Amino acid sequence: MRSQRRHSMERADKEVSVAAMKEYYKQFDPRSYLRYNYIPPRADFTRTDSIVPWKLSCLHRAFQEGDVHGRTLIDIGSGPTIYQLLSACEHFSNIIMTDFLEVNRQEIRRWLHGEPDTFDWTAFLQHACELEGKGCSWPEKAKRLRTAIHDVIPIDVHSPNPLHPYSLPELADCLVSSFCLEAVSPDRTSFQKALTNLGTLLKPNGHFLMIGALDESYYQVADGVHIPVVPVDQEFVSATLKSCGYEICTFQCYTLPQDMKVGVDDVAGIFFVKAKKK
Ligand SMILES: C[S@@+](CC[C@H](N)C(=O)[O-])C[C@H]1O[C@@H](n2cnc3c(N)ncnc32)[C@H](O)[C@@H]1O
Ligand SMILES: O=[N+]([O-])c1ccc2c(c1)CN[C@@H](CO)C2
After folding, report:
1. Is 44 exposed, middle or buried (0-12, 13-18, 19+ CB in 10 A)?
2. ipTM of the complex as predicted
3. CA 264 to centroid of ligand 1, rounded, Å
């Protein structure tokens, strides 16, 4: 009840439609977004209760189970971040990153090309190496990730053909998506439709690894700029995945400690779900 009331209050002043969401994203600033979410306390590798270490451990475990493998993996709504692929690159040789905004695709390409003045992912790379425990160094991990990422292309999850005009040579064996569907959909119906659209990219028996925000109604995309998020909970995400033809393999939730609420959103928790397309 509380989240619905806040949800209606927070979003009351914003028009919510697919077109409106696309307009809001014109204000997205990659550097600000990284600063809001990917530095301590949210990315503090000395703390076991920090959000990013929790996300990386979920992804590490999902791949360690050994049933997620193949050649092609597509990362949906990559944004300006690469952390979500640190485990995936050990298991997939053809990774395609995607985002709606050229500014984000450009940020990724600059990192791929080792250009100066890009976001420093060293601590994330080091943490992934520690999780894997194979004595890999972070420069080796960075090299492996750069080698596995073969493309950075546009995507619109609200399109029935999300990658148009890019044509996939083969369907993906795995989809990864972090903080995308609930952050780009005006309502729960659009979330479900977008999930259906993404299903056209994935082979039967392929896996979908999704990270998302729980009970969030807005987030900051640039200084002074907040955009609406459709609040979702575990029940809705699970039911929507099942209605779209997935079985749930794992569903884990993280509740934000008070000091992880840094004023850039009203997220209450984070979910990680590993699902398999029937
Ligand atoms: C909250 S960010 C998530 C970024 C990153 N995956 C992460 O884990 O932090 C949401 C991303 O969705 C992208 N986006 C916005 N509209 C989209 C759409 N219609 N289809 C796909 N991605 C979209 C934005 O450009 C942004 O990079
Ligand atoms: O703590 N985090 O690692 C983190 C990273 C990204 C995002 C959030 C939290 C919460 N808001 C979403 C947008 O819906 C984006």
Report:
1. middle
2. 0.99
3. 16
